[in-house]
Input
Amino acid sequence: MLDSLSTVFSKEKGISYGSIRVWGSIGFAIASFVLGNLIGGIGIEYLWIIYSIIMIGVLFLATRLMDPVVERKPLTKIGFQRAFRNLRFLFFLIAILFIAIPHRMNDSMLALYLKSLGASEGRIGLAWTFSALSEAPVVAIMYLLMRRIPSLLVLLGMAGSFYTGRWFLYGLLSDPMMIIYSQALHSVTFAIFMVSALQYIAKIIPEEMLATGQTAYYATFNGLATIIGSAAGGYLMDLYGGGFIYKIGAISAFIGTVLFIILYAKDRSLQKRVQAT
Output
């Protein structure tokens, strides 16, 4: 919901989405570092107190904000059908799923994997700090990158390739600090992937169904992929260990990358046919 609000607010104010989203990355980086060290010092049983204080602060700030006001096209039956009968969009969601499964698996399993390798709670928090800090500058300059590489599918393919290499590297490493440092690869994976995916949805989905398209994306990335990644990741980790699940994750990311390449080739072919006519 926050990403949807940020998208609407950026359009209303005429600023880039990345300039808003970067503050989420900074906040996550600070929270990861501070909470990781607090948990190591006072214990996880007091975490609810810290979360309660944060949520009270968020609720107070929310009362000071105004809802963004934008003109929306009316919801129509035709627009609804176009959104869910759009084969390109469905193919895109399948590619998203293959990329998202290992990403969400990492969200669930990384702490357990690092713990099994001997990392402390503070170092586990440091891992998330590295990922968030590396993400922030890339999100902030994504609008410049999209000017140099205008094809969103090329950017998605690049992110998928980086994801493949990232998970394969995690599968090979056994030193927890090396894995923690490698979390900086979050910058060229998730940051590029997230912004490009949201922009691509806005490109191929009718404007009156944009919220529905974004919801389908979030349901795939945050919902279905989380269920599959957490369940399969936990089961396979118990059987074969953490290194194995990351190698499987690399294969999944590679499949998603290939699907983006196929989608790009189809789009190029369609453009050539349109130009020929």
Notes: The domain at 2-68+77-276 is CATH 1.20.1250.20 (Growth Hormone; Chain: A;).
